[in-house]
Amino acid sequence: DWVMRDHIAEALVQIRQQVGVEQVILGLSGGVDSSVAAALIQRAIGAQLTCVFVDHGLLRLNEGDMVMDMFAGRLQARVIRVDASESFLSRLAGVSDPEAKRKIIGGLFIEVFKTEAAKLKANNAEHRGATFLAQGTIYPDVIESGGAKSKKAVTIKSHHNVGGLPEQLGLKLLEPLRDLFKDEVRELGLALGLPPEMVYRHPFPGPGLGVRILGEVKKEFADLLRQADAIFIEELHNFTDPATGKTWYQLTSQAFAVFLPVKSVGVMGDGRTYDYVVALRAVQTSDFMTADQAELPYALLKKVSSRIINEVRGINRVTYDISSKPPATIEWE
Ligand code: XMP
């Protein structure tokens, strides 16, 4: 629509004015906000933007390739994919405390990103001088960091964000989504040509599967979880609620599988199995501060369960999480 076209035109002019002939670096995660920011900035300044996509090895099935296809492929953006999965896995070895895991993942993420940003800055130094760091900060993030957060006496979970990073890197900030609410960001993304699957994606935590594998993170566990999770998400898209005409993916705010590192006995063919368990989690919420477990249709749960058990060798039991937040949280760690 014309309001959005106007808004885009204005944003493009503003970005070009602010950036001039300088270079911009953006940390691409595959999430909605950084994706829309990347698409917008790319439209404004093309090859002056370099996206850095840090793959920590804890992404969902095919996620890294999808991000690359979209940005390097369809949008023709400059994207550096850093495959850091081995570093992440080796630093996580033997660590099972959730907060310790979060700190390791968040810290290493920033380390890897900084190294890439410093390389790019050095490459550009003699030609272009200073450089910008672009972030997909949206209006609710701006409000949240304005003090409301400090009211909380206890940290339930430490979320990693890149606060202080621009100063440390000697970069200026570019935040073209700062005035927008989430629904406006999605609309902007669609108008910029991002596919609805990307724009309406459920949120995914920064530490990724690292907080969905209970206890110690191992590659073997991540591989099993990725397969189970992909089946769950696929079936949420396949099942439609007749009353609303919406899919169960659309009717839930967040849904995913969780890997439980315990083994239970099962039977398959004429053999006994002794394999791992996954839990399915699906919630409905408007603000993620409180949430209700989704009342998924039993037929959907049955389909997902039988597919996971039949298709994922190494998992022989599937459970459904029926806890609300509070007292449970959405993620299991
Ligand atoms: P909880 O589990 O606290 O999750 O009920 C609320 C929302 O926050 C997301 N979440 C995170 N996001 N880094 C993130 O970027 C994190 O460490 C993190 N922990 C939880 C969670 O996915 C849910 O949407």
UniProtKB/TrEMBL annotation:
<keyword id="KW-0547">Nucleotide-binding</keyword>
<keyword id="KW-0332">GMP biosynthesis</keyword>
<dbReference type="GO" id="GO:0005524">
    <property type="term" value="F:ATP binding"/>
</dbReference>
<feature type="binding site">
    <location>
        <begin position="29"/>
        <end position="35"/>
    </location>
    <ligand>
        <name>ATP</name>
    </ligand>
</feature>
<dbReference type="GO" id="GO:0003921">
    <property type="term" value="F:GMP synthase activity"/>
</dbReference>
<keyword id="KW-0658">Purine biosynthesis</keyword>
<protein>
    <recommendedName>
        <fullName>GMP synthase [glutamine-hydrolyzing]</fullName>
        <ecNumber>6.3.5.2</ecNumber>
    </recommendedName>
</protein>
<keyword id="KW-0315">Glutamine amidotransferase</keyword>
<keyword id="KW-0436">Ligase</keyword>
<feature type="domain" description="GMPS ATP-PPase">
    <location>
        <begin position="2"/>
        <end position="201"/>
    </location>
</feature>
<comment type="function">
    <text>Catalyzes the synthesis of GMP from XMP.</text>
</comment>
<keyword id="KW-0067">ATP-binding</keyword>
<dbReference type="GO" id="GO:0005829">
    <property type="term" value="C:cytosol"/>
</dbReference>
<comment type="pathway">
    <text>Purine metabolism; GMP biosynthesis; GMP from XMP (L-Gln route): step 1/1.</text>
</comment>
<comment type="subunit">
    <text>Homodimer.</text>
</comment>
